[in-house]
């Protein structure tokens, strides 16, 4: 579903991604882990066609990003640090706006479905600027899944959410994954990643340093895998021992 070949990204003299290869199969849920500044957001932004690679190729759902970005975008849902919502519009007006942008048929039915799924149907007529951060994030996810994309890209989606909002988000992501969608999520939270993902990739030194499937951890700790991938002296951001 996603293929990245020899991807390099430079900002001036700084090389952030270095000949990175990545392959994500349909239906996989990949947690992209790695220390601060490793390039996780950079990689996600390139996959989302928000930033251009310096070198290398990306294919998503069989389309090459370099010259078929419009086709790729239709198959993607993206949740980034910006919620991309209009504060002076209500929740349903926001989704209606995006439904038009995607040219969705049966938009009203789909908007109702999505607002129910993200737990905001009762608040559909309220202006988004009156929403809590958790509600805005849920609506941002609603926006991202509105056109039922094949691939969902999420950059640290739990940041700034309280426990209840995090749990609701996890439930939502499990539903998306259960529908066979492909998910790539960056995370610093190993415990949450361990709960959700079917595969764990560690980005460090500009490329995927190590990758393991959930079933291959075979009772081993994700934190141990993570530390080994980075070399223990670098893995300072563990959130405690995390067992699958
Ligand atoms: N637009 C930019 N111009 C210059 N340097 C950038 C730009 N965007 C990112 N960088 C640099 O690229 C490196 C990777 O940043 P990135 O945000 O992708 O890392 P990350 O793994 O997502 O980090 P974090 O876990 O802290 O979110 C950092 O050193 C950052 O300063």
UniProtKB/TrEMBL annotation:
- Which molecular function term from Gene Ontology is one that the record holds? ATP binding
Keywords, comma-separated and alphabetical: ATP-binding, Cytochrome c-type biogenesis, Nucleotide-binding, Transport
Q: Name one Pfam family in it.
A: ABC_tran
Q: Is the keyword Nucleotide-binding assigned to this protein?
A: yes
Q: Which Gene3D superfamilies match?
A: P-loop containing nucleotide triphosphate hydrolases
User: Which processes are annotated in GO (biological process)?
Assistant: cytochrome complex assembly
Boundaries of every ABC transporter domain copy: 2-230
Q: Which SUPFAM superfamilies match?
A: P-loop containing nucleoside triphosphate hydrolases (SSF52540)
- What family is it from? Belongs to the ABC transporter superfamily.
- What is the protein's name according to its record? Sodium ABC transporter ATP-binding protein
């Amino acid at each position: 579903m996603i293929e990245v070949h020899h991807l390099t990204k430079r900002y001036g003299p700084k090389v952030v991604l270095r000949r990175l290869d990545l392959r994500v199969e349909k239906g996989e849920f990949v947690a992209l882990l790695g220390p601060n500044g490793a390039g996780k957001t950079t990689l996600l932004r390139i996959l989302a066609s928000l930033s251009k690679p310096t070198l290398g190729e990306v294919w998503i759902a069989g389309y090459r990003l370099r010259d078929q970005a419009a086709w790729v975008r239709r198959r993607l849902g993206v949740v980034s640090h910006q919620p991309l919502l209009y504060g002076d519009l209500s929740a349903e007006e926001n989704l209606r706006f995006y439904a038009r942008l995607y040219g969705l048929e049966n938009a009203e039915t789909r908007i109702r479905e999505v607002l129910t799924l993200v737990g905001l149907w009762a608040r559909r007529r309220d202006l988004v600027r009156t929403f809590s951060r958790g509600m805005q994030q849920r609506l941002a996810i609603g926006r991202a899944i509105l056109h039922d994309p094949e691939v969902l890209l999420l950059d640290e989606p739990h940041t700034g959410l309280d426990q209840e909002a995090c749990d609701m988000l996890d439930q939502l992501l499990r539903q998306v994954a259960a529908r066979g969608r492909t998910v790539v999520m960056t995370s610093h939270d190993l415990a949450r990643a361990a709960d959700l993902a079917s595969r764990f990739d560690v980005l460090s030194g500009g490329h995927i340093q190590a990758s393991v499937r959930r079933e291959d951890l075979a009772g081993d700790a994700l934190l141990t895998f993570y530390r080994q991938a980075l070399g223990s002296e670098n893995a300072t951001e563990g959130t405690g021992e995390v067992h699958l």
